[in-house]
Amino acid sequence: MTARVIYRLEIAGSIEEFPGERVVRVRLAHGSIPPWTLGICMLNESVVDMLSIHSEDRSFKLHLERCAGETTGSIVVTSGSSAVTVALSSTELDRWVYFFLSYLRDGHAPVDHIDVDLDGSEPMTLVLHVPAEAAPVSPFRTSRR
Length: 145
Known about the structure:
Strand order of the largest sheet: 1-4-5-7-6-8-9-3-2
Helix content: 10-25%
Structural class: alpha/beta
Oligomer: single chain
CATH topology: Gyrase A, domain 2
């Protein structure tokens, strides 16, 4: 069975070119986190084979799928000027599930983004930005712990 989920979310996506590398940036709005998290959980549990995330204006598309077989790295399957398909390892999917479920639980993340170095025919980095990160712990509070 091939199942695919498509979400149109409040995201901003861009593909930036640097010498010898491309960077794909996805900025998630706070309201996009719950459906995004549900989608990656379904992908992680093999309930769906592909998760497609489109920006509201459809100017950017990110397609996520699981890597075939056991692998430790994630790979770029295809990339264009406004769409990227990425195959994620089970380890990377587990990391994403933990990060975004923790975000939902706490209302913020410990950092403002996660990044993934992608293997493939061309070096690429995927950066996922979230809108709220935890406030840093002051030195005063650290010394009181």
